[in-house]
Design brief:
Number of strands: 9
Number of helices: 10
Helix content: 25-40%
Distance between the termini: 191 Å
Strand content: 15-25%
Structural class: alpha+beta
Length: about 375
């Protein structure tokens, strides 16, 4: 066996140095940030967007930013990213369409002038004088004359003085309304159908300029009052020549799920030659409708005639008969059942109908209500 050099190699002992890794900067927890954006910030912006128009754009910008941040940081898992993208993409599109729509929300200020509102015309029906047909003025064509009178009366009931349809005016109105009342009537009709945007042009320009969102202010003022009916009390204070009119209006509205009655002093003002309604004057106060009690009739009752007791016949009571073959005895000497040739009748005492054969064959007369023979049996 070949000898090999024998030696031992002892490497130098290496010392292992325990080194701690360098501290790493903590990575932001993007999942928690995204959860705050999607489930707290965005729903809050969506709620405010119902009342403030500019919050819709805040919602759109915040939603797009949150979605872009989620995909850039790869937040959540793949299924979570897809779900959140679909959900908030749809909400963003809906909010964008609502923001671009001209009638989006109640906060839209639609610039409508009073010239675009057709005037309301009220005309009192005229009374047409028509001749009354008599015997003298009805001849061979009398039927035609009567038909002409009926046609004229029908035309008078359907047509006003200016040829317009009287039904287009206020029912039962006997005089034309002032311009202030016409504008107030238009305001009440629009309030009844709850179109707040159409109420804006009926309010004074000075009131509109003092409001940030006039339609939104009207919504807050009238949202809890669903108008049902209204009526005016008395005459307006002021004329069309004045700059303002005060009109007392009583209206019924549903508030707190029950119908209540309010009375308000509606203020109608003229600005730039046009009439407008001050909405603050329609707040009104609650009143109670009272049903008038029926008037009691205290007139004396009509006198009741005292009943006269029926005379009880006796044996000496006179009765009457016809000696020329009469078969009845009568209580009235001029009884209508007897022919006039035999009147007046001959009298006899009632007691003879029981004791004398001549009178016993006679029977009582029903026409003059002669008493029966049994009335004497007790005597």
């Amino acid at each position: 066996m070949r000898n090999r050099p024998s030696y031992h190699y002892t490497p130098a002992r290496s010392e292992v140095i325990n080194r701690k890794p360098a501290p790493r900067r903590p990575r932001a927890n993007w999942n928690q940030i995204l959860l705050l954006l999607f489930f707290i910030a965005l729903p809050f912006c969506g709620l405010l967007a119902l009342f403030f128009g500019f919050m819709k754009w805040v919602f759109i910008v915040l939603s797009v930013t949150a979605l872009a941040l989620m995909w850039y940081q790869r937040g959540f898992n793949a299924r979570g990213r897809l779900t959140m993208s679909l959900l908030f993409s749809v909400l963003t599109v809906v909010m964008l369409v609502s923001a671009l729509s001209p009638q989006s929300g109640v906060g839209v200020n639609v610039p409508v002038t009073m010239s675009t509102i057709p005037p309301i015309s009220y005309s009192a029906p005229s009374i047409v004088s028509t001749p009354v047909p008599t015997v003298e003025n009805i001849g061979n064509d009398g039927l035609t004359a009567v038909e002409g009178v009926q046609a004229a009366a029908a035309d008078a009931s359907m047509t006003g003085t200016d040829g317009t349809d009287a039904q287009s005016g206020a029912a039962g109105s006997t005089q034309a309304m002032t311009q202030g009342q016409q504008v107030l009537e238009k305001f009440m009709q629009t309030w009844q159908v709850a179109i707040m945007a159409d109420l804006v042009p009926l309010t004074p320009p000075s009131w509109r300029s003092a409001q940030a969102e006039p339609a939104q202010e009207l919504f807050w003022k009238f949202q809890n009052l669903r108008l049902q009916s209204w009526e005016y009390e008395g005459s307006p204070q002021g004329t069309d020549a004045d700059s303002a009119q005060t009109i007392t209006v009583i209206y019924d509205a549903i508030s707190s799920n029950r119908q209540q009655t309010f009375q308000a002093q509606a203020l109608v003002v003229k600005e730039d030659g046009e009439w407008y309604v001050d909405p603050d004057s329609l707040t009104g106060i609650k009143i109670e409708r009272t049903t008038p009690e029926p008037e009691l009739d205290y007139s004396p009752l009509p006198a009741t005639p005292t009943p006269v007791p029926t005379e009880v016949p006796t044996a000496n009571t006179l009765m009457y008969y016809n000696p020329d073959g009469g078969k009845l005895y009568h209580a009235n000497p001029e009884c209508s059942s007897v022919a006039a040739d035999y009147l007046p009748l001959t009298s006899f005492k009632f007691g003879l109908v029981l004791s004398d054969d001549k009178f016993s064959r006679l029977e009582p007369c029903d026409t003059c209500d002669a008493p029966p023979k049994s009335a004497l049996e007790g005597e």
